[in-house]
């Protein structure tokens, strides 16, 4: 079996992080844009905190939502740079890292940073 040269290295982030980040960002999005649809009273302390933030700090929540996506986009740009540094040259693979990092942030970028490509042996 031929060994890969690393130019197409990609690993999907764990299901734990996919679910955690999706639910968290989904909840955050709903609290910012459609808080009337969330049953805050059924969510215990999280609902109480969320209701307080929506009622008293809606502008901060809105800015925080944009900041969270901006951080994910910045991390995705770093992922492209790391791909270059690690010799991942396949455009399709680089796009996969970019999209996954936009969606899941450091849960994806951390996998890429940990990747240690094999160095060719010099004789």
UniProtKB/TrEMBL annotation:
<dbReference type="Pfam" id="PF14934">
    <property type="entry name" value="TMEM254"/>
</dbReference>
<keyword id="KW-1133">Transmembrane helix</keyword>
<keyword id="KW-0472">Membrane</keyword>
<dbReference type="InterPro" id="IPR028110">
    <property type="entry name" value="TMEM254"/>
</dbReference>
<feature type="transmembrane region" description="Helical">
    <location>
        <begin position="64"/>
        <end position="83"/>
    </location>
</feature>
<feature type="transmembrane region" description="Helical">
    <location>
        <begin position="95"/>
        <end position="113"/>
    </location>
</feature>
<feature type="transmembrane region" description="Helical">
    <location>
        <begin position="15"/>
        <end position="34"/>
    </location>
</feature>
<protein>
    <recommendedName>
        <fullName>Transmembrane protein 254</fullName>
    </recommendedName>
</protein>
<keyword id="KW-0812">Transmembrane</keyword>
<dbReference type="GO" id="GO:0016020">
    <property type="term" value="C:membrane"/>
</dbReference>
